[in-house]
Write a structure and sequence with these properties.
6 strands; 2 helices; single chain; six-stranded mixed beta sheet
């Protein structure tokens, strides 16, 4: 599965383990920073396009966007009642578009 920017309606910052509103997912973004790795917590709302195109085996509990050592991005979905998370790729262009659309700035990157 590949995630595109059009599959995510909004991403906003949240504090640590703060609750999210109905229809949102707890999310996080982990990325390379100047002195190691950094993480920001997010509230994420998916679009109908995601729900239509999703190949996930059940209800999503959370999503983590993670930057690899080679600068590639991965979306990791925790699915209710599944022990192993579902992993999807997201291209650098789509990730940049997503960050820009939602005015998310990665500090120290």
């Amino acid at each position: 599965m590949e995630v595109t920017a059009s599959m995510i309606r909004s991403m906003t910052h949240r504090n640590g383990d703060a609750e999210v509103e109905s229809g949102q997912l707890k999310g996080a973004i982990e990325y390379k920073a100047e002195h190691g790795r950094a993480i920001s917590f997010l509230a994420v709302t998916m679009t109908e396009e995601f729900n239509r195109d999703s190949e996930l085996p059940g209800e999503i509990e959370s999503v983590k966007l993670m930057q690899g050592e080679d600068d590639s991005w991965t979306a990791i979905f925790a699915v209710k009642n599944e022990k192993v998370p579902s992993i999807a790729s997201i291209s650098n262009d789509e990730m940049n578009r997503l960050l820009e659309q939602n005015r998310i700035v990665l500090y120290g990157g």
